[in-house]
Amino acid sequence: MQVELRTVNTDTAEVLRGYVERRLRFALGRFGRRVEPVSVTVSRNARGETICGISTHIVPFERVGVRETDRDLFVAIDRADGRVGRLFGRELQRAREVRVGRESIRLAA
What we know:
The chain has helices at 13-28, 73-101, 105-108; strands at 3-8, 38-44, 50-57, 63-70.
C-alpha cells in the first residue's frame, strides 16, 4: 500500500510517517490490492485542534474520504483510519450482498 503523507502547520512529519503507515496497514491491510494509493493530510486549525483527513480509492468503488478532528494528534489519526477501514468493510459487504442476491438466469426459467 502506497501512503502519501502531507502535513500542514505541524512539524512532526517524520515521526508521523511510521505511525500513520502502521495504523493504515492495520485498518486496510485486509483489503489487499483493492486499496489504491492512500493520501493522508494532517494539519492544525486556528483553535489548536488536529485535523486528519484520509482519502483513497477502493478498486470496485469510487474515491472515499474521511475527516476527523481532535485536540490530540494521535487520537485524530486513530479515529480517521478506523472510520476508513469500517467504511471499506461496509462497501465490500454491500457489494457481496448484491452479487449473492442476484438470481441466475438459468434458475429463473
